[in-house]
């Protein structure tokens, strides 16, 4: 199975095949609107505006599984993100990322890379303990630990990086640039 066989639903209810994103670098993120990490939307929008004309897309999947931090309807979430952070990248229907009702896309992503990467700045014993804690809802290896877990998919559809929620979008810029240059 390839990521391009998976279909997802946009926030407006339209079903879309990920094949539409073939030959693009993708940053796929599970998000929430009432999370302490919600300001990461600013960094996501920065990356999108900077690289969208070079074959880069962000796919935003709101998720309410962690502390009920995305409680609104798809329309309310979309309006909040547009009004507060002026997002212009694709936002999709709210999903589950773990458990029996997990999105096929996130099951695929988790199976490709089970562990989050964190930067040296955040690579402390206490931070590792927090991220591996059941407080973050993770019950089995590979599960998403919290809102704003980020996956980078290359132009061939392979998951090449999985980043911890605490990694700021700007910290991914070097990898995005590298992949865009590699696959020109």
TrEMBL record:
Q: What are the UniProt keywords, alphabetically?
A: Oxidoreductase, Peroxidase
Decide whether keyword Oxidoreductase is in the record.
yes
A single BP term in Gene Ontology: cellular response to oxidative stress
What are the recorded GO MF terms, alphabetically?
Answer: thioredoxin-dependent peroxiredoxin activity
* Active-site residues, Swiss-Prot/TrEMBL: 35
Query: Reaction catalysed?
Result: a hydroperoxide + [thioredoxin]-dithiol = an alcohol + [thioredoxin]-disulfide + H2O
Q: Does the keyword Oxidoreductase apply?
A: yes
Q: Which SUPFAM superfamilies match?
A: Thioredoxin-like (SSF52833)
Q: Which family does it belong to?
A: Belongs to the glutathione peroxidase family.
Please identify the protein, giving its name as recorded: Glutathione peroxidase
| Species this chain originates from | Neocallimastix californiae
